[in-house]
Amino acid sequence: MRSAPLFAIAILAVGIGNVAYAKDPAPPDPEFDEILARDISELTVTSVAKRSQRLNDTAAAIYVITKEDLRRSGIYTIPEALRLVPGMQVAKQNTDHWAISARGFNSTLDNKLLVLIDGRAIYTPVFSGVYWGDQSTSINDIERIEVIRGPGASLYGANAVNGVVNIITKSAEDTQGNMLSATATVKGNGIYEARHGGKTKDNSYYRTYAQYYDAAGWYRGRSGFRLDGKTTNNNDSYTLQGDAYGGEQKAKLNTPVITSPFLQTISSTDDSYGGNLLGRWNHRIEKGSDLSVQAYVDHYSRLESNFDQHVNTADIQFQHSIKLNDRNNFIWGGGARISYLELAGTFSASVSDRYDTHEILSTFVQDEYAILANELYLTLGSKLEYNDFTGIEIQPSTRLAWHPTKNQTVWGAISRAVRTPSSIEEDVSLLSLVTPGAPPTEYRIMGNADQKSEELIAYEIGHKIEFNHSLSFDTSLFYNDFDKLQTIGIPGASYTGSDGNIIIPYMVNNLGSGHVYGAEFSASWNINPDWRLAGSYTYLKMNLDVRPGAATTLKAGERLAPRNQFSIQSYYNISESVHWDNMLYYVDHLSPPVKDYVRYDTRIAWMLQPGLEISLIGRNLIDPHVEFPSNPSAEIDRSVIGQVLWKF
Questions:
Q1: pLDDT band, residue 39 (cuts 50/70/90)
Q2: Which of 123, 250, 562, 621 is spaced 20 to 30 A from 339 at the CA atom?
Q3: Residue 410 burial by Cβ neighbours in a 10 Å radius (0-12, 13-18, 19+)
Q4: Higher confidence at residue 349 or residue 414?
Q5: In the prediction, which pLDDT does 25 show?
Q6: In order of start, what are the domains of the chain with their CATH numbers?
Q7: Helices first, then strands: H and E counts in the chain
Q8: CB 100 within 8 A of CB 90
């Protein structure tokens, strides 16, 4: 029966509970007893300046999802975790497809959000975006997720336009011993994980893991390792890690055909698999001066009903941090990336170049200058990047941070960022409609090798303040000026295709522009040592238009992001071993048929003995709802989830 995994978890929990009660109660394991209070003064981040900074000192709209936030929320996928971030729109479409963005322009493959896992970019060069279903990194292995809302292109380059998501996993030293985890819903969906960590004779640490994910016709297996070590003088440290995955998912696709009824629903089983290997070396030259080199190789394949893709990527990056004097923190670096693509289309989605290669060469510099020591800081930086789509792109940034008191920061920034075209946007011939006739007429969207990069000039101001380590507020205001947004041009002259059909082409071009502005507010309140509240509200307004020569306006895209969102999270320790956590979200309406909705999640967890936790989670308990208009039949149902986590 479909509920068998959850039933098995319940039986296991009851049995272990009886054993626990037969013994004297033991205090929770230290890893399960993280500090509940969120003390911003103690949180550090590395994403804003590529060096460690206090969160409260950064001149950016950045939010940190800690490992405690992840565990207390009962989350087991990265997309669900991003719901916790103020201003992020997270819309689930089906089991493995998500639309995720910050500050507008949301889509299934959001092309303006850069996502990194331990410094490895998972932004695909084929479609521009992220295949979220393939990113099943274990939540139990994540140290934190740092999310920058707004451009980060001066350090991270093209496509870090509306935000950067930096997923940082735990060191192998922090995952010693064994772990077993089982998560299952009443419908039989589940994720099951095993992990082992150990230490070698040369004082390095390692972990290995395996994961299996099964969800309503979609499954995936994943395994990998991580090795961390350092020299005896602590001047050098290294990391080597790798993952491999494979799986399949059932899919339905509505595709145009040249025979009646000219639109067909195709059911298929799509396959995806891949793997990566990453190495990183850090060297301390002297106090305040560090050198880091990172390289990785990555492969992924997706075999779908109308399009196959195989992508191999090799990347190498280095950076050098130098404390020039008491006022200057200087960092510079560079890198190279090459991607080899093999693409195979069909009648409805064909490509002109089956084999393709793309290169990116880059360098960056950034200097933080203390105008007034411990009070006023100016940061200037820029990325200089060459890509083989649009050539050289310069993406500068200016940031100013003022600390009027030790516990608050007022900041402002002006930045330029670009979103470069993808391989498909250059080479695709996409069949969008067929009308009957003798012969039939095909309406096709054609790629354009002369496309330009989409451009953004972003203006931001913000304020962070913390009161007595218990109450904190974070406010960000932004105005984004976009130009050369991608559009579909007016139809070109018709011609006869090789099959005798009449073809009317619509070429991709860059005739869109507009501005997006909004406000983001978040707060965290440590009511007492056993209760923390967090909340946020965001407002977003988009005004987009096109110049003459575009076939349609961009007005429909304005309503693919909610104008208003708010959320409240409550984390409460009923006792030393029982925790109760609640999450409430409101999302404004999008394009029809997506109405505004309220989502309520709850979790109660019981630590039976050191290292052993069981929890019961309710998701979306108010009403089923649709979250994104591209799949209006995919309602997000209520669900009940059981989890067992055992570390020994």
A1: low
A2: 250
A3: middle
A4: 414
A5: 42
A6: 4-647 (2.40.170.20)
A7: 6, 35
A8: yes
**pLDDT at residue 315 greater than cutoff 90:** yes
DSSP category for residue 171: P
Residue 17: pLDDT band with limits 50, 70, 90? very low
- Report residue 314 CA to chain centroid gap: 21
Q: Is the dihedral of CA 93, 159, 141, 137 positive or negative?
A: positive
How many whole angstroms separate alpha carbon 385 and alpha carbon 389? 11
User: Which 3 state secondary structure label does DSSP give 248?
Assistant: strand
Q: Count the neighbouring beta carbons within 10 Å of the beta carbon of residue 254.
A: 8
Structural Rg of the chain based on CA atoms: 25
SS3 state at 557 = helix
What is the maximal distance between C-alpha atoms in the chain? 84
Question: Residue 408: which H helix or E strand, with range?
Answer: strand 408-419
Tokens of 567: 């959320």
CB-based contact 315:339 (threshold 8 Å)? no
φ and ψ of 296, to 5 deg: -150, 155
Residue 510 CA to residue 489 CA, distance in Å, equals 9
User: Among all chains, which residue has been given the structure tokens 């940061």?
Assistant: 379
206-238 burial, b at 16+ Cβ within 10 Å, e below that, comes to: bbbbebbbbbeebbbebbbbbbbbeeeeeeebb
Number of Cβ within a 10 Å radius of residue 439: 13
Q: Which two tokens stand for residue 202?
A: 């040369």
- Let me know: does 277 contact 295? Beta carbons within 8 Å: no
* Among 443, 429, 425, residue whose Cα is nearest residue 256: 443
Indicate the pTM of the whole model: 0.93
Entry field: residues in the chain: 648
Q: β-strand 441-446 against 502-528: which pairing, if any?
A: parallel
Share of the chain above pLDDT 70, in %: 93
Is residue 142 a contact partner of residue 118, using CB atoms and an 8 Å limit? no
- Rounded average pLDDT over 548-557: 89
